[in-house]
Structure prediction request, 63 residues.
Amino acid sequence: MQKFKALRPVIEHNILIAILWMAVGAYIYSAVSAHQEAKTQAAVHAALKAVPVAEAAPATSKN
Prediction:
């Protein structure tokens, strides 16, 4: 029990460091994911701008 009490601050420190690294990892993952999403949206937008669109024929009324 005495050994555990002596190791408790070290264990708590390691747990806090692990939580910190998980938060940093989540932030980096989120940033990379958002950047990739923006690149994908830009590529889709550019591809759709290149698609020719036919003009609509003038509407004729049959009344």
